[in-house]
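Explain my protein.
***
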Amino acid sequence: MSYTLPSDVDDRPIAIDGAGTLGRRIGSVYAAGGADVRMFDTSQAQLQAARDYMNEQREHVRTALNLHDSRAGEVALFDDLAEAVRGAWMVIEAIPERLALKREVLAQLDELADADAILASNSSSFPTSLLIDGVKRPERVLNTHYQQPPELNAVELMSCGETDEALIDALMEWIPRYGLVPFRVRRESDGFIFNRIWAAIKRECLMVVDEGVAAPEDVDGMWTIFTAPGIPPFRLMDRVGLDVVLAIEEHYASVRSGLPEGPRTLLHTLVDEGNLGVKSGRGFYEYSD
């Protein structure tokens, strides 16, 4: 049977295991959107710091995510994990990025959480396929990779390999009510979506400076100009023309060994089909004008 959200989801809390920097940000978003949030941590200092942060940031989060139409949820602190997760419809793991620890905690959460609860890891580097050795019900486990909410409010959803796809469908529909924007990662990917893209941008920025091509302030200056209009990468490639983009990529490949062929193969497929972008009416997107 495919997953469906519990009928009483509005009346059940969200539990977060880990009251560190990101755990408290995630909790702030859900509380601002009306969910009761239970924060667990082994450190009382972390729990108190999380409560202070969430109280201080509540109105800022509600404004940043336009959540004024919803009531604010209650925040409760727990030093007992079993009590924290009892009754929660979703449990989010936001503990330190250590593989053995995450495996241990997810197995523990699988034992303690309600049978219909979603188990979500916020790991930024470990796909949940590496974390489910001790989990008896992996169909309810997935990565929910939050960036830095509320300002960076994207959430990447990635299967553990055994996740019920209907569960991901349900989250794609449900979590936007908290001002979050979900993106489905369509296959397992180290770095998910954006971190992979950012890794390439970051690497080239460092190379340009290391090779003496530009100073850091010049890179930042050009970045500011090019990102200000808000034109995203695939829209920009369609504007330039995919035949032109392909020619540029072919030149780079001729002067820099080791570049992967996949991007050029993708471009070749589109160009060979006559899909050149805006000028042909279709590229990565369709253009009726």
Observations:
- The mean pLDDT is 95.
- The chain has two domains: 9-185, 196-280.
- The longest helix spans residues 44-64.
